[in-house]
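ok so I'm stuck.
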Amino acid sequence: MWLFTVTVVVGAVPTQIGLLTKLVEIQIRDNNLDGAIPSELGDCIDITKLKLYRNCFAGTIPSELGKMTNAVEISLHQNSLDGMYHHAALLWAYYCGI
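replied:
not stuck anymore, here's the structure
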């Protein structure tokens, strides 16, 4: 089991993050990350919590995040994202711009 928490980060999330398939939780919140959320993040299928809120992400929420079937929390708010995250196991969707 791997937990990845980062603070004080700027720039874009590299697409290679999808190679970290054993991650169970990613917290890269309250930073200055920008660009799009990489669709490769959906390859981290063991993720239970994905917290990317309060950054500078822009673009559309990747549909590949739907492959994270173990996810119980996906927090993408306070970015400049379009769309919403859908997952049958979750009882809510996080709308962007809230």
